[in-house]
Design brief:
With about 270 residues, the protein is α+β, with helices and mostly antiparallel strands. Helices cover about 35% and strands about 25% of the residues. The radius of gyration is 18 Å and the shape is globular.
Length: about 270
C-alpha cells in the first residue's frame, strides 16, 4: 500500500497504474521508430540501440515528474539506486536482439519496488499491442481482461527457456538440461524476451519457464504479473525472487510443475 503522503498525489490520476500505462504507451512510440543505431555491450550477443537509451530516458523523465521521491534501477547505464523507499525497475526494451533484427517479440518492462517487494508491474509489447499489468493484491490483466495460467500436467506443457547467450561458457548446462527435459514436456520455445515469456506463462500462452540468469529488470514486472495471475515463480533453491541482484528464475502454471521443473534443473545448475 502506498504511503499516505503520496496517496493524495496519485489520486489526482485515475489510478497509479493507469498513469504508468499511459507513460509506457507514450514511450512505445519511441520504440516503434525504426530509425535507430545499434552497438555491442561487451559481446555481439549483448546489444543496445539508441532507442533503448531514448526510451529509458523518457521513462525516467516522466516517472520522476510523476513521483519525484522515487529512485531508479535501470538496464542502460547500469543505474542502480535501491536506497529510496520506492524504486522504478526498468528494462526499456527487453529483447533488444529481437528488436535490432525487427523481430516483434520485445517489450517495455516497468516495475515499482517497495520494501523488497514489487507492488506494480507493466509489460507492453507495442507490436502485438499486448499490455500486461498487475498491482499487488489486485490480480493480473492483459489488455484490461483478467488472466490466469493453465493447469495442465508437465507432459502437456510448453517450456520457455534460454541458453545463456551472454555467457556462452555456461551454455552447455542449459543445452544438457533442455535435452533431458524435452521428452517430459510437449515442446520447447525460445523467444528472446524473458519478460514476455514469463507473462506468456501467466496468461496461458505457454506453461513453464526456466532461465539460469536473469537481470532484475528482466523479471521484476513479470514476476508480479505471474504471481497475481495465480502462477508460481522462484529461484533455483525455491526461494522468492529478490530484486537487488541477478537471479536464476523458474516459473510455472502451478506449484506441482514448479517443483518438478526445479528438481529436474537442480543437478545441472546447482
Amino acid at each position: 500500500m502506498l504511503l499516505s503522503p503520496i496517496r493524495g498525489f496519485f489520486n489526482t490520476f485515475k489510478t497509479m497504474i493507469e498513469t504508468v500505462k499511459s507513460i509506457v504507451l507514450q514511450a512505445s512510440k519511441i520504440m516503434l521508430n525504426d530509425d535507430f543505431s545499434v552497438k555491442e555491450k561487451g559481446t555481439s550477443s549483448n546489444l543496445v540501440t539508441s532507442n533503448d537509451i531514448a526510451v529509458q530516458a523518457f521513462l525516467k523523465q516522466k516517472l520522476s515528474a510523476f513521483f519525484p521521491s522515487s529512485g531508479f534501477y535501470c538496464e542502460e547505464g547500469d543505474e542502480n539506486d535501491l536506497t529510496k523507499d520506492y524504486v522504478w525497475i526498468i528494462d526499456p526494451i527487453d529483447g533488444t536482439t529481437n528488436y535490432a533484427k525487427h523481430i516483434s517479440v520485445c517489450c517495455i518492462s516497468v516495475a515499482l519496488e517497495h520494501e523488497g517487494e514489487i507492488i506494480l508491474g507493466v509489460v507492453y509489447n507495442p507490436y502485438q499491442k499486448m499490455m500486461f499489468e498487475a498491482e499487488k493484491g489486485k490480480g493480473a490483466f492483459l489488455n484490461g481482461k483478467p488472466i490466469h495460467p493453465t493447469n495442465i500436467p508437465m507432459k502437456e506443457c510448453v517450456l520457455y527457456t534460454a541458453f545463456s547467450a551472454y555467457e556462452k561458457q555456461y551454455s552447455h548446462k542449459a543445452f544438457q538440461f533442455a535435452e533431458n527435459v524435452f521428452p517430459l514436456v510437449s515442446d520447447i520455445r525460445r523467444t528472446g524476451s524473458a519478460a514476455f515469456e514469463i507473462c506468456s506463462v501467466a496468461c496461458g500462452r505457454g506453461d513453464i519457464y526456466l532461465e539460469m540468469k536473469l537481470q532484475v529488470w528482466d523479471y521484476a514486472a513479470a514476476s508480479l504479473i505471474i504471481k497475481e495471475a495465480g502462477g508460481e515463480i522462484c529461484d533455483l533453491e525455491g526461494n522468492p525472487m529478490e530484486y537487488s541482484h541477478p537471479s536464476f528464475a523458474i516459473a510455472a502454471n502451478n506449484k506441482e510443475n514448479l517443483d518438478v521443473l526445479r528438481k529436474i534443473a537442480y543437478p545441472y545448475f546447482k
